UniProtKB/TrEMBL annotation:
Residues 64-142 form the POTRA domain. It comes from marine sediment metagenome. The keyword Transcription does not apply. This is POTRA domain-containing protein. One of its GO terms (cellular component) is outer membrane.
Length: 260
């Protein structure tokens, strides 16, 4: 241990000099040190000494400190913008868990800006002498993807335009600044749920989405989406019976119901 003092480590241990050796205490100490977070490796050794005493040795290896984060391949967003978005920063203890979360954050940033083919990886270079690490984030931005067309197949009675109308995802339009044609994965998944709910609201309770095909066109940077559905049977409302009404006529209550 270099940065973390011996006293700070001992303060977290139940195992104490002069106390009886208890394996459950040692196991708990290991768990606490792991949960504390600053160590990449923790080992414990118990050695029997002359006179029947036991020496308990905790061997720890500290996680490196981030010296700097280097972004490579980014053109759409500058280094400052990317650094603002992530948790990994100079002076912090390096955490690969946080670093993987940061990569997901950067993916989302690009996706929200229309970059659907972005590829990101990272490399950590350690300096054993200083205990510091330089994190290299390599970004292949790919092309800015715009949706060229969305097609819905499999409809019989339902109008595909009505289904497209409930979606927030739209093909690019030269006539509308709202329809810029960006593809966002989270929004598209919600759109599939919107389509399903709309169909069920029209009585197609067995409706299913059979397939979703996303194809990048030969011209590149253009996305074609095909959604194939099965309508199933349309159910109609039969008799509506109002029961338990004592103060209002059934006819008046039935008039308030959306189901006819």
């Amino acid at each position: 241990n270099r940065r973390i003092s011996r006293e700070a480590i001992l303060a977290r241990l139940k195992t104490r000099s002069g106390k009886p050796y208890r394996q459950e205490d040692v196991n708990g100490d290991l768990k606490r040190l792991h949960e504390w977070g600053p160590f990449s490796s923790i080992q414990v050794e118990a050695k029997e000494l002359p006179g029947g005493e036991i020496a308990v040795v905790f061997i720890v290896e500290e996680k490196p400190i981030v010296k700097k984060v280097v972004f490579e391949g980014n053109r759409e967003f500058d280094d400052g913008k990317l650094q603002e978005e992530i948790q990994t920063s100079p002076g912090e203890v390096l955490s690969e868990t946080r670093l993987n979360e940061d990569i997901t954050t950067i993916y989302k940033l690009y996706e929200d800006d229309g970059y659907y083919q972005t590829r990101i990886n990272y490399e950590i270079k350690l300096d054993p002498a200083s205990g510091e690490a330089v994190v290299f984030v390599n970004i292949d931005e790919g092309h800015e993807i715009r949706i060229k067309d969305i097609i819905i197949k499999g409809t019989i009675e339902l109008d595909p335009d009505d289904l497209l109308g409930v979606m927030e995802t739209h093909a690019q339009s030269l006539f509308s600044i709202l329809h810029r044609g960006f593809f966002k994965e989270d929004e598209f998944k919600t759109d599939l749920e919107r389509i399903t709910l709309y169909c069920k609201s029209q009585g197609y309770l067995d409706m299913k989405i059979l397939d979703v095909d996303r194809t990048i066109g030969d011209e590149g940077a253009r996305l074609y989406i095909t959604i194939t559905i099965s309508e199933g049977k349309q159910y109609q409302v039969g008799d509506v019976i109002v029961m338990g009404n004592e103060n209002f006529p059934a006819e008046d209550l039935e008039e308030l119901l959306p189901l006819k």
